[in-house]
Amino acid sequence: MTDQKKSDQTTSSEKPWGGRFSEPTDAFVERFTASVGFDQRLYHHDITGSIAHATMLAQVGVLTDAERDQIIDGLKGVKEDIEAGRFEWSVSLEDVHMNIEARLTDRIGITGKKLHTGRSRNDQVATDIRLYLRDEIDVIAEELARLQAGLLDLAEREADTIMPGFTHLQTAQPVTFGHHLLAWYEMLVRDADRLQDCRKRVNVMPLGAAALAGTTYPIDRNLTAELLGFDRPTENSLDSVSDRDFAIEFCSFAALLMTHLSRFSEELVLWTSAQFDFIDLPDRFCTGSSIMPQKKNPDVPELVRGKTGRVNGHLISLLTLMKSQPLAYNKDNQEDKEPLFDTVDTIKGCLKAYADMIPAIEAKADNMRVAAKRGFSTATDLADYLVKKGVPFRDAHEIVGKSVAFGVAESRDLSEMTLEELQQFSDVIGEDVFDVLTLEGSVQARDHLGGTAPNQVRAAVVRARKGLTLV
């Protein structure tokens, strides 16, 4: 064996678990199985969990108060070293837990080796991930609420701005831009509810399950849970160390959130195009072309739309990771962190971009209005008018269909026809028909809860703001 090969390998005695082994870990295997390259971001939560664990061990008499204080002071020193950039992460120590424990022992001596009493890396990492995800959920909830607030402000501002509503991307009926934005808001309400519901299942504590079967030490799991802010300890030690449902559930929330942001993005991309020209995005959220000087590209919405596939992939990755695992912990679970971390980072970035961008959108009301007048968007209003005059709906539908066909042939909207021209299709049509054929009359007529009338849009904004206050 070459000197380089020897230096690349760690002797069994240097490993915390090395007593069982008679030869050193292969250098490639050491690098291949190590997770410290990505799980070091859990250092804060690992140290927080260890401080609570040491506190509990002293409370039940496993550690002395002096040992507890020495361990806690040592852990705080390790944290300072990490945050000051003085900590050298070692691949040979595999993960964040063993790196921190080794440094603690270097700092305080043999007492540091007592910290791991009554726990395993299996319940330790499960606890760390839950602490990490709980904190990130709270950050994400705040950013999501900021986006919602921005949508409400814009919806209120544009409550009277008429635009075409679409089905099949064909002009359907007039709506207002404010009403359309509130549809986006409702999607985010469901996302926020799912996130808080997910948090409930994240916020249970697996620490104390040890490797898989609990521990013979007289630990107080309720105390540790209280110290760490968990709602309660988990109930079953086998499930405690092997459960990653909470991570999958979070990624499921994230996939749905990104699906909604992607739908928003698609509309923003369409609306900024020359063909629609409904809105203007601030220059700071767009980029240009290296060859076409006239271009203003909606890169932020496009990139958010693209990142949806990334997050969906992470959800599938975690589902596949867990689908064949027997109880309890398996090394497969090391693969849970990178998809989870990247999902968190991605949705935080996307939410920030949208929360910053949405309030700065400028609606081009005149263009929206012109578009709403195309495509016979008040045809349904004419059918409703006829029904109110006593015409059966199916007959009214037929009458309006013939009116629209006439309009297509003449290249004129229903509102541009004369009374005589409309009456050739039904003699019940009177002068008052033009009240319902206007765009304003159409949106105002749907004056009910959830409808398009501007006063209903403003009332919905008021109700929504009250709900946001409670988040």
Task: Describe how the helices and strands are arranged.
Blueprint: H1 3-8, H2 27-33, H3 36-39, H4 43-59, H5 65-83, H6 96-108, H7 121-157, E1 162-167, E2 170-176, H8 177-202, E3 204-205, H9 221-228, E4 232-233, H10 237-242, H11 245-272, E5 279-280, H12 299-322, H13 337-357, E6 362-363, H14 365-373, H15 379-388, H16 393-410, H17 419-423, H18 433-437, H19 439-445, H20 454-469
Can you tell me about this structure?
By secondary structure, the chain is mainly α. Strand 1 and strand 2 (170-176) form a beta hairpin. Mean pLDDT is 93; it is low at 1-13. It starts with a helix and ends with a helix. It has helices at 3-8, 27-33, 36-39, 43-59, 65-83, 96-108, 121-157, 177-202, 221-228, 237-242, 245-272, 299-322, 337-357, 365-373, 379-388, 393-410, 419-423, 433-437, 439-445, 454-469, and strands at 162-167, 170-176, 204-205, 232-233, 279-280, 362-363. Helix 7 packs parallel to helix 13 (337-357), helix 11 packs antiparallel against helix 12 and helix 12 runs antiparallel to helix 13 (337-357). It is built from 20 helices and six strands. The strands form three sheets. Strands 1-2 form a two-stranded antiparallel sheet. A two-stranded parallel ribbon has the order 3-4. 61% of the residues lie in helices and 4% in strands.
